[in-house]
Amino acid sequence: MNVATPIIAEVTPAKRKIGHNSVGHTVCPHDCPSACALDVDLTADGRIGRVRGSADNSYTAGVICAKVARYSERIYHPDRLMVPTRRIGRKGEGAWQEISWEAALDEVADAFVKAEARHGSEAVWPYFYAGTMGQVQRDSIERLRHAKKYSGFFGTICTNMAWTGYVMGTGALRGPDPREMAKSDCVVIWGTNAVSTQVNVMTHAIRARKERGAKIVVIDIYDNPTMKQADIALTVRPGTDAALACAVMHIAFRDGYADRSYMDLFADDPVGLEAHLKTRTPEWASAITGLSVAEIEKFARLVGTTKRTFFRLGYGFARQRNGTVAMHAALSIATVLGSWQYEGGGAFHNNGQIFRLDKSELMGTAYKDPDIRMLDQSQIGRVLTGDAEALRHRGPVTAMLIQNTNPMNVAPEQRLVRQGFMRDDLFVAVHEQFMTDTAQVADIVLPATMFLEHDDLYRAGGQQHILLGPKVTEPPPTVRTNLFVIEELAKRLGVDHFPGFGLDERQHIDKILQASGWGSYDELKRDRWIDAQPDFETAHYIRGFGYPDGKFRFSPDWKNGPSPDKPPANVGPQGPYAQLPRFPDQVDVIEVADAEHPFRLATSPARSFLNSSFSETKSSYEREGRPEVMIEPTDAARLGIVDGDVVRLGNQRGEVRLHARLVPGARPGVLIAEGLWPNSKHLDGEGINVLTGADAVAPYGGAAFHDNKVWLRKDAA
C-alpha cells in the first residue's frame, strides 16, 4: 500500500493545541480528484511541520499520499522562487536580474499593451491549468481574459475524453457516493493507479475487503502498485478497454446476468445493444486485449453475479484516441447489470455536477465575448509555431501570462513547444513557485505563494465535499498570490472597474457560496466542509438518468451529445468523430503499432510526482531514481537490452534517450515511462512528451498521452 499518514482516532476541533504548537486545517490543492482535508502541525513560530489527512472527514479518513505528508520539504525548499526576476540573457540561458514587484508588473502590462496594439487583443493568451485546484487562485485569470478580450483557453489536457464518455451515457457528471465503495461486494478499479495517485480510493476499497470480504478487481496496462493489491488483476493492451467491456456485456446477455427489466425502464436501446454484442465474444476480445478467454469469463461472472459491484472508473484508460468510447463502454456494464439499483453498486468517475458553484463574477463571464477565438491548451506547440488551424486562422500569439502549469514539460509535441517558446517576438511572464522548465524560458518570472499561505475554496471531483482551504502560515514577504497578480494587472490595463475586481479571496469565496446556495464564508469556516452528496435516488439515477427522457444512452450522439468539456460552437466537434461507433465497441483510431513503430508507449504517472509538481523535492526524486522506460523482459532480450542500458525511443515527433528498466508485469510490445521528470533530468535535456501527440481526440478534444507508437533500440553511444 501507499506510504501514507495513518488514520488518527481523535476528532480535531478548529484548532487543537499541542504544547506550544497547534494544528491548522486546510485542503490539498493539487491536481488530484481527492482534494484531501488536511491537518497541519504548526510550530510556535508559525512554521508547518507534519501534514496529515483529516480523520474527521469521511472521505479523506485520515489518509493522504506520502508526497503531501512531506510538504514542509517543498514549502521550505532552498530553491523556491522568492523575488521577481527579469531575463537578461538569451532565452533559456539562465541569466536573471532581480527587480521589484512594481517594475515586473509594469513590464508585463506594457508587453500586453504592445502586443494588442500590433496584432489585436487576441495576441495575448493567458494560459493556466490545475497546478492549484483552488477556485479563486486558479480561475481569476479568466476574469482578466474576458475583460481584455484576450484569446480564450480551451482546456484539453486532462478531462475531455473521460468526462465526455461518462456523460454521453448518464447525461450528468455525477454518480454513487464514492464512500459506498466500503459497502460494496466487488470494487472494480479500472484505469487508475489509485495506490499512487488516489490513495483514498484504496482506503474505502480495502475497507470493503476487510469488512465484507469484497473482491477487488484492477484493470490496467502494467503491473503497478494498485495491481498488486488486486484479487483479480487484468493486464490489457493499451487502447483495448472497450473490447473487454463489450465481451463482459456479451456474457451478461448470454448467461442471464443482464437485468432486462431494469434496462427496459432506464436504457435507450437494450435490444439494439444485445444484437450488436452478439459477435463481441470473449474469444474476439481475447485477441484484441491480450487477456485469456478464461480471465474474461471469470471477470464477467464475478460482476454478473455480484449485485453490489462498484465500478471506479479512472482517467488513465481514457487517455487514448478511443478513450471517450472506452469510458462509455466500461460505464455501460453497470447499466446492463442494473448495478445502479444497489448501495455499493453502480459506476463512478467524477462528481463535478453536484457542486453547482456559481463562479460567474469570479470569472467575469458576463463580459465574455463569444467571437473571441478559443485556443487549444494541448496544441500550444502548434499555436506558438504559427499553425494556421491551431490559431483558428487568425493572428499570432505574442504575449502570455502563465499560472499553475508548466507547458514546457507537460504539453505534448515538446519540440514544437520549445520552438515556439524560443521565439524572440514572444513575451512570456510566468508566475511560479520553482524555476520550472517553462519559467526558464520566460522574460519575467514572478514568485508565487503555496496553498498553505493563502485562502481558497475547493471542490472534490473524486468525492463529494466542498472544502475551505484557509491560510495556515504566513508566506515569505516577497511572494504573491495569483489573485494579487491578476488584480494588479487589471489596474495597469484599465479594467479594474469591471465587476469582480477589487475583492479579496474571502469576499470571492463568500460571493460564490451565497450565489450557489451553500451558505457563507463564515459558515464554511466554522464547518470546514460541506457534504454535497445528493440523496441515493439522485446519485444512483433511481428516478432516471440525466437526459430529459431519463434513459441511459447505449447509443449516444457523439457529434451533438452533452459534455462538461464540449468545445464552443466556433470550434465544434474534433478529431475523427464520424468513426465513433453507434454502440459500445472497439474502435481503432489509436496509434496502432506497425513495422516501423512496433511498440506502444504510455506515459503513466509516477508515485512520488504529481504531473510536474514534487519533482523538485529531494525525497520524491530519490524515491523515483531517474527517468526510465519499463520494458517487458522478452522484448528486451530480443533487442539485446539489459537492465540499466541507455535506450532510444522515437517516432515521427522526435526521439529521447533514457535508461531501461526490465519489468515482467507489462504486455510484450508495451512500454511504460512513468513521470513527469523535468526535461533537464533526461540524458539529452528533452522529456518524454517529445513523443506524445497533440492531435485532437474525438469528439470533443483532448490529448492522448498514453497512445503513442514508437520504435525502441539500444543506444549505440
Automatic annotation (TrEMBL):
- Where do the coiled-coil regions begin and end? none
Instruction: Show the stretches that span the lipid bilayer.
Output: none
Query: What segment(s) does the record annotate as region Disordered?
Result: 554-580
Q: Where is the 4Fe-4S Mo/W bis-MGD-type domain?
A: 21-79
User: Which domain of life, per UniProt?
Assistant: Bacteria
* UniProtKB keywords: Iron, Iron-sulfur, Metal-binding
Q: Which Gene3D superfamilies does this one have?
A: 2.40.40.20, 3.40.50.740, ADC-like domains, Dimethylsulfoxide Reductase, domain 2, Formate dehydrogenase/DMSO reductase
Question: What family is it from?
Answer: Belongs to the prokaryotic molybdopterin-containing oxidoreductase family.
Q: What is this protein called?
A: Molybdopterin oxidoreductase family protein
